[in-house]
Design a protein that fits this description.
Layout lengths: L1 H9 L3 H13 L5 H8 L38 H4 L23 H11 L2 H5 L5 H4 L4 H17 L3 H10 L21 H7 L19 H7 L16 H42 L16 E3 L9 E3 L12 H12 L14 H5 L13 E3 L7 H8 L9 H6 L1 E3 L2 H15 L12 H10 L3 H12 L7 H18 L1 H15 L5 H13 L8 H10 L3 H15 L8 H12 L4 H22 L2 H19 L6 H24 L31 H5 L2 H18 L5 H18 L7 H18 L1 H16 L19 H9 L6 H20 L5 H11 L5 H12 L4 H15 L4 H16 L4 H6 L1 H10 L3 H16 L7 H14 L5 H20 L4 H18 L6 H22 L1 H21 L17 H13 L4 H9 L3
Main location: Golgi
GO biological process, one term: intracellular cholesterol transport
Organism: Cyanistes caeruleus (Eurasian blue tit)
Length: about 1100
């Protein structure tokens, strides 16, 4: 293993060496070479491509070579030179037998200390092999073997890092090495086979082992006087002589220590046999007075930490039966005196006990009663004490730990047997015990098992249990440090990410966030869970943990990966995950982006570009979900953007908390969706924000924005691009208009009133150009028909609600209504504005004011537009306003000199009949509609009749039943009769088509037998007469409808009507129903009206 470490250091694979050092450290097998290399800052101060200078050492008796810049070895301090140990360049030159991988670190160090003489430790040896550069093919071959060894021995993290450092080599294919030979045996086989070859013995002891000079002088007084020779041409012969002698010494030392290890092993086996066969060892002390004979209990060695209280069957063979019997009797009778017992020995002394030396612990003595019973009698008497030491539990019970290490070892053995027998509901009580043992246990495998138990402690941990486990994990991390957390806790998380229970995966996701302050960035695990986990709760926890990690990440190379994760999170199908993204992940990522300087130059521009691309590609169908995703992300970035503007303002250096701090208005900022989007928290404190806001307003009002780069970017780049995007939106898309309106509203409210009035409104006004000379009688002002109008009205002009702001909004809407009407342009932008504003009752009075302006306007075109706008407003306005403001305005317009204005009021009257419940109001509307139908002056008004029929079909199914039965259906019958007499086929077909749609919608309503016989059926028959000549497809459907209605009437006498059962839904014949539906699907009439057949019921 040391040879591999030397190879890695020599080839400058420092990250791989560091991973190897970490894994060996955690497994208790630390290599001195790696320890000293990574503890010496000098090894990292030079960044050349050559191996460390310590790797090219001169003659052992000479200086420490190139590492000291030419200084002789006697000048360099030992602590400096030992961190620059040499390395071996080929496998053939390694003395593998000297480096054991058995985990016994203390023995390895002890060998090295005694094997290297004093002068050797002060002067490095140099061998010709070190100076030879490694060939490229040799390097690739050794890399392959090293990687193979790491994988086979579970050093996976080291292997991954090693592969990354050798990205130009494929470690899965030996042929990639480039040697035209079969793959050699692995490193283990090479090591085992090394003894079969004759190799000149060379001292390759790790010179980086640090020892005290006085210890070495005491151990090797003769060799300590070896002289120091300079590495000059004159001293080459002396160097060779010294080299030869040292090689001989090295061989002898190796033999000596090999024999000593064998002796120690045999002595350990002897002690083990003694511990198994003897319960009472030799008495170390004799009582000072004959009457006070004291017998100690055996101090047996179980890792040097246990007091053995077991009795042995062979005590009589060693003459200790009396003492043992009396001691045990004293224990059973509870007559042990505290003053006569020494509980334990000091831990420091205990740790010095070697496995082959007799125990130095203080013996525990008990008074020996003055009795003369025979040993056989004692043995027989004690046989009645029922004690069991044969089982696992009996063995544990019979031993009492007397030190911290012993307790940890005992807990490590016992906890795996205790946990399965504890009730699931109470297992969290074991968490402190498991964690404490996992922290302090010396064995890596036992620690791994305990942490595995922790993560699998509860089958499906609930919120409280998960919180308890997370608290324990954090405590563990604080105690053991990042290296052990990464090596011990992370593997447990990886094991659980695909667990079948979501609670366990939830625990993993939450653990990553909780451990973020104590771990390197672990985005890969969370990225996998975000992409693959199907549980919304788990992905939500993943997002929150990602947000926490964003607060600790400091590697700029991870920025793009974080951005991709952000887009994935924003596009998640779960609303919970998206909400967590806006609350935690996005603000945390924005904070990091701000630090990197990417907020204005990458994150926001990238999102804007994605929106523009969507609009370009969505000419035939915009992906509104993606638009919402990107725009909501931009909206969540507004607080971070404003904080950036404040923190980089010219006045920031003047912002001092002195004297009385001004108060921030409660409504100054929009309510944040989470604390992380609170500008005060982003800045640092509410007091600091208050001072900055005061300076911000003063700067904008009096000093301008010169030199204020961050704000100029918002004004000159962000706002123009946003306004351009707004102009490309389909104004008919209510969702898009609403999204952009909310975005501009938040932007303006966050940046303040002065900014809105001086920077935002002028840019919109420049685009819109509301003036009489811009009116085009053919096409109108093009921008007024776009979404710019509703977004400016509802997103910018509604930010502040003072009187002057409201007047500005009213004036803008009046101007738009006038210009669109006079230019005969589409009214979609005005309608979108009314729909968006009408959703808020606070603007109803304002909108009615705008419409009244249209009612009294001198132009009939404007009055007609106002009449049509009332239809949109009626649905959301309170009935009191309808009665006081809407109906009077509509009645005024219904008597307008222009017939087009009167016709334009019909849809609004119909909507009132559909939504209002006041009887008096309904009667007024009914009278007005009746005047349209019965007044002779309207008898030949084809467009008026068409509008009334369309309105009846739209509102009839949802209107008050009495109005429908007494007014709508009878008048439809009359219109059908009149249409039979129409001589112009085009008008007759137009009326008949609208009648068909109205009758189709009304067929879903309950119709009484009298109404059916007197009006509904006769009306359908009149309509069929028209369709026979004009549209045979409609005639077939009408015949089916008439037949079913007649059957329904016939069945009335046998079966009572069932509530509001629709005629279409109660067809007797399935064949007829199928035919009816198929025919309707073939028609080219309005799909919206045909849909009413199945949707509107009363």
């Amino acid at each position: 293993m040391d040879a591999i470490a030397a190879q890695l250091l020599r080839d400058q694979f420092l990250l791989t060496a560091l991973e190897l050092h970490t894994e060996l450290l955690e497994s208790g097998r630390e290599l001195p070479r790696l320890r000293d290399f990574f503890s010496n800052p000098g090894n990292f101060e030079r960044q050349s491509g050559t191996p460390p200078a310590g790797g090219a050492l001169g003659c052992r008796s000479g200086a420490a070579g190139g590492g000291g810049g030419g200084l002789p070895g006697s000048v360099l301090p030992w602590s400096h030179r030992r961190n620059r140990a040499g390395s071996i360049s080929t496998l053939d030159s390694l003395d593998f037998a000297r480096y054991s991988d058995d985990g016994n670190r203390e023995t390895d160090e002890r060998v090295a200390e005694n094997e290297v003489p004093l002068q050797e430790r002060k002067n490095y040896k140099s061998s010709p092999e070190i100076q030879e550069p490694i060939r490229p093919l040799e390097k690739r071959a050794l890399n392959f073997l090293v990687n193979e060894f790491l994988l086979k021995n579970s050093y996976k993290l080291t292997s991954i890092t090693f592969s990354d450092e050798n990205h130009d080599q494929d470690f899965e294919l030996w042929d990639d090495v480039g040697l035209n030979i079969p793959k050699p045996p692995d490193l283990l086989q090479l090591y085992r086979d090394f003894g079969n070859h004759h190799v000149t013995a060379r001292d390759v002891v790790d010179a980086s082992v640090g020892v005290e000079d006085d210890e070495l002088e005491a151990d090797t007084p003769i060799l300590g006087t070896v002289p120091v020779f300079e590495t000059t041409p004159q001293s080459i012969e002396q160097c060779l002589i010294v080299q030869k002698l040292e090689d001989q010494i090295s061989v002898l030392n190796s033999e000596k220590w090999s024999l000593m290890e064998q002796i120690q092993r045999l002595e350990s086996e002897i002690d083990l046999l003694k511990n198994e066969n003897f319960a009472v060892s030799t008495v170390y002390g004799v009582a000072p007075h004959p009457s006070l004979k004291q017998v100690p209990l055996t101090v047996s060695e179980d890792n040097g930490r246990y007091l053995d209280i077991k009795s042995s069957e062979n005590d009589n063979k060693h003459g200790n039966i009396d003492e043992t019997s009396l001691a045990l009797s004293a224990e059973v009778d509870s007559r042990t005196s505290k003053d006569d017992m020494l509980n334990s020995v000091p831990s420091k002394e205990t740790e010095k006990l070697s496995s082959c030396a007799p125990s130095s612990k203080a013996a525990v003595h008990f008074d020996k009663p003055n009795r003369k019973l025979s040993p056989a009698f004692h043995q027989a008497l004690l046989s009645f004490c029922r004690m069991s030491a044969d089982s696992r539990l009996g063995s544990e019970v019979s031993r009492i730990a007397d030190s911290e290490k012993s307790v940890m070892l005992m807990l490590g053995r016992c906890l795996p047997h205790i946990v399965p027998n504890v009730l699931l509901a109470k297992r969290e009580e074991l968490i402190p015990l498991i964690l404490c043992t996992a922290c302090l246990h010396p064995e890596p495998k036992e620690r791994d098992q305990l942490l595995h138990i922790l993560f699998n402690l509860i089958k499906r941990p609930d919120d409280e249990q998960r919180q308890m486990i997370l608290t324990g994990c954090v405590a563990f991390a604080r105690h053991v440090g990042p290296t052990r957390v990464e090596a011990e806790l992370l593997p447990q998380c990886w094991e659980q990410i695909n667990h079948k229970y979501p609670e366990r995966r939830l625990l993993v996701a939450e653990s990553c966030g909780a451990l973020a302050p104590y771990l390197p960035v672990i985005l890969s695990m969370l990225q996998q869970m975000l992409m693959e986990d199907k549980a919304d709760l788990v992905r939500e926890a993943v997002i929150k943990s990602l947000g926490i990690i964003m607060g600790y990440i400091d590697d700029p190379d991870k920025y793009q990966q974080g951005f991709e994760l952000l887009l994935s999170a924003l596009g998640d199908p779960s609303e919970r995950v998206v909400s967590a993204t806006h609350q935690v992940f996005l603000p945390a990522y924005a904070a990091w982006t701000t630090e990197l300087g990417n907020l204005q130059f990458h994150l926001i521009p990238t999102l804007l570009n994605k929106i523009e691309k969507l609009l370009r590609e969505g000419e035939h169908g915009l992906d509104e979900h993606k638009l919402h995703m990107y725009l909501s992300a931009l909206q969540s970035l507004i607080p971070s953007l404003f904080a950036l503007v404040l923190q980089n303002a010219p006045f920031t250096s003047k912002a001092k908390l002195q004297g009385e701090v001004p108060q921030i208005e409660v409504t100054r900022f929009p309510r944040p969706v989470s604390p992380l989007q609170d500008v005060a928290i982003i800045i640092g404190s509410r007091e600091q924000l208050a001072v900055l806001l005061q300076l911000y307003d003063h700067q904008l009002e009096h000093e301008g924005t010169t030199g204020w780069e961050t704000l100029l970017w918002v004004v000159n780049q962000l706002l123009p691009q946003l306004i351009e995007i707004v102009g490309k939106i389909n104004v008919a898309s209510t969702a898009c208009v609403h999204e952009f309106s909310r975005f501009f509203w938040r932007l303006c409210r966050t940046f303040g009133k002065i900014f809105t009035n001086t920077k935002v409104k002028p840019q919109f006004q420049e685009i819109l150009r509301l003036s009489e000379e811009n009116i085009d009688s053919t096409a109108g002002n093009g921008v007024l028909t776009k979404a710019t109008v509703p977004i400016y009205a509802t997103g910018v002009l509604t930010c502040y609600i003072q009187e002057e702001d409201r007047k500005l909004l009213v004036g803008f809407l009046e101007d738009v209504m006038t210009m669109l009407s006079l230019s005969h342009a589409p009214l979609d932008s005005l309608k979108a504005s009314f729909v968006e504003l009408g959703a808020n009752p606070a603007y109803h009075e304002l909108l009615l004011t705008v419409l009244w302006y249209g009612v009294v306007h001198t132009s009939a075109l404007v009055r007609c537009t106002a009449a049509r706008m009332f239809e949109l407003l009626v649905k959301g306005v309170h009935e009191t306003l309808v009665a006081q403001r809407v109906v009077p305005a509509l009645i005024t317009l219904s008597s307008d000199p222009e017939i087009s204005v009167r016709i334009a009021t019909i849809p609004a009257f119909g909507t009132i009949m559909e939504t209002v419940t006041q009887r008096e109001l309904l009667e007024r509307v009914k009278m007005q509609l009746a005047s349209f139908l019965e007044d002779p002056q309207y008898q030949d008004q084809h467009s008026l009749h068409t509008e009334i029929i369309k309105t009846f079909g739209r509102v009839g199914p949802n209107a008050e039943p009495r109005f429908r039965d007494e007014f709508v259906i009878p008048h439809l019958h009359k219109l059908a009769l009149v249409n039979n007499q129409q001589s112009v086929d085009s008008k007759r077909l137009d009326i008949a088509t609208h009648l068909f749609e109205s009758y189709s919608a009304l067929s879903c309503c309950f119709i009484s037998e009298d109404l059916m016989v007197n009006h509904f059926l006769p009306g359908l028959k009149c309509l069929r007469t028209d369709m026979e000549h004009l549209s045979p497809e409609h005639e077939v459907i009408l015949s089916s409808m008439i037949k079913e209605c007649e059957q329904k009437v016939e069945n009335k006498t046998v079966q009572e009507p069932q509530g509001s059962m629709s005629i279409a839904a109660s067809l007797v014949s399935e064949d007829t129903k199928t035919k009816f539906l198929n025919k309707m699907g073939q028609l080219t009439t309005s799909g919206a009206m045909l849909a009413n057949v199945f949707q509107r019921k009363k």
